Amino acid sequence: MTAKMNSVCYHAPGQMSIIQTDIPKIDDNQVLVKVTCCGICGSDVGICSGGFGVKFPLIPGHEIIGIVSQVGALVKDFVVGDRCAVDNIINCEACFFCRRNQPIQCTNIKIIGVHLPGAFTEYIAVSAKMVYKIGGISDEEAIFIEPISCAIHGVDRLGSLVPGMNALVIGAGVHGIVLSQLLKLNGASCVTLAANRGKKMDIARQVNAADVYVEFDRADPTSQWTSLKEENPLGFEVVIDATGSAKVVNDALDFVRSGGTLLLYGLYSDDAMVQWSPTKIFANEIKVIGSFGQKHCFSRALEYLQRNKINVKGLVTDVFPINDFNNAMDKVGTKDCCKIVIKPSL
């Protein structure tokens, strides 16, 4: 009889149950990873609601940490017992964009937990070339390798950063906190982190994410936005929106210094719209760019964590077992949590 495992399965948008599935078989170039924890990403809300081109039924989960449980016959670099992180992006390496070194735009891209079975389960079979050994950090720190990789790609998209620049990051979720730290590490003399008052901003302060903190009143942030503008009349050389709010993005352009850059980093609804003056962008030579996902950034993210350059201690605020997945998803996006992790062994 084939061995079974517990898995979160979405049968249709918003329709989830815990099911028994077969522990996957591996081929000669794969490893079987026993999942020790898998982080819930903000994108999982959209994925489980039918976004991102998903096809049901689906086992979601793409922030994957585990232990190598079995290795394929041709795998040379891993042995049973290795702790590891798993990259979640698979490119075709043959399409127009892949051949132009734009893997994020791959027309045949496959993402674990989106187009392929993910890791809100007990075991997952993956190609060995997607696996990275981890050491010197805990699982609850390693869970941030994938989010940090996405943030690194975002900073890469900014191009050559000028030492001594000032930057504004809007939003104090995991990505806002990590982006703030990356900007400090890559030349910013002053990083301002602006977000709603609450637990996430408390955590941002605890990890020393930024240099200046602007806490918005949730009911009426008008006075804080006004003060921020008055205290920075020329604006910021780099402004990053990590909120996913079209209104915030619409207003963010007013905080970009002439010759500066606005980076759109949040997850926005498909029908979200902004209204900017093209004259302002043209005359002030403002760059507006986007950043989505990552590719080939895992090794750098791991280095940042292992060398204690990026502090993620305390960002995991809640841990749930697989059987309590519904409650975990209900808590995502609330103001009293930061990162939520699923641990199958609980």
From TrEMBL:
GO molecular function: oxidoreductase activity; zinc ion binding
Gene3D superfamilies named in the record: Medium-chain alcohol dehydrogenases, catalytic domain (3.90.180.10), NAD(P)-binding Rossmann-like Domain (3.40.50.720)
The keyword Lipoprotein appears for this protein: no
SUPFAM superfamilies per UniProt: GroES-like (SSF50129), NAD(P)-binding Rossmann-fold domains (SSF51735)
InterPro entries: ADH-like_C, ADH-like_N, ADH_Zn_CS, ER, GroES-like_sf, NAD(P)-bd_dom_sf, Zn_alcohol_dh
Keywords: Metal-binding, Oxidoreductase, Zinc
Keyword Zinc on entry: yes
The Enoyl reductase (ER) domain, residue ranges: 11-342
Cofactor(s) needed: Zn(2+)
Top-rank lineage group of the source organism: Eukaryota
Any Pfam family: ADH_zinc_N
Family: Belongs to the zinc-containing alcohol dehydrogenase family.
The protein's name: NADP+-dependent D-mannitol dehydrogenase
